[in-house]
Design brief:
By secondary structure, this protein is α+β, with helices and mostly antiparallel strands. The chain has two domains: 47 residues, no CATH class; 59 residues, no CATH class. The chain contains five helices and three strands. A three-stranded antiparallel beta sheet has the order 2-1-3, covered by helices on one side.
C-alpha cells in the first residue's frame, strides 16, 4: 500500500491496474515472452535458485481438500503454485505425512491412492 493511501483509493488504483492488464493482455504477454527469450539463461538460473531455496530435505505427502487429491513433493510452495497454475481449485492443503526419501513418499502416496484418493505418480509403486 502506498504511504497514506486510503483503502478506497487503493481499491480504485488496483481496479484501474486490473482493467489495464485485461485490456492489454496480449501485448503484455508478448513483452513478457520477449523479455524471457532475451534473458532466458538468467531466468533459468533464477528459477533454479528459487526452487533450491524452497526445497525441503524431506518429502511431504499432502491432500488438496475439496478435490480428494493426494500428492507428494519436496517443495510444497512450488508444487501448490503449479496446482493453481494448472487450474486446480482447492479449499486448503493438509500435510498427511512426511518421508525422508522419495521412494518412501511414493509408497505412502500410493497407499492413499489405493483407498480412493485421486492423483497418481507415474513412477509410484502399486
Amino acid at each position: 500500500m502506498k504511504h497514506n493511501e486510503s483503502s478506497k483509493a487503493r481499491a480504485k488504483r488496483l481496479e484501474t491496474k486490473k482493467k489495464y492488464r485485461v485490456k492489454h493482455a496480449e501485448e503484455i504477454a508478448i513483452k513478457r515472452r520477449e523479455h524471457y527469450l532475451k534473458n532466458k539463461d538468467w531466468e533459468i538460473i533464477l528459477a533454479k535458485k528459487n526452487y533450491q531455496k524452497n526445497k525441503q530435505d524431506y518429502y511431504s505427502i499432502y491432500v488438496l481438500e475439496g478435490l480428494n487429491y493426494v500428492g507428494m513433493t519436496n517443495n510444497l510452495e512450488v508444487r501448490m503454485r503449479n496446482h493453481v497454475k494448472n487450474g486446480k481449485v482447492f479449499d486448503r492443503v493438509t500435510i498427511l505425512d512426511t518421508a525422508k526419501t522419495q521412494d518412501i513418499a511414493k509408497h505412502i502416496e500410493a497407499e492413499y491412492h489405493k483407498v480412493g484418493y485421486k492423483g497418481a505418480h507415474i513412477n509410484a509403486k502399486r
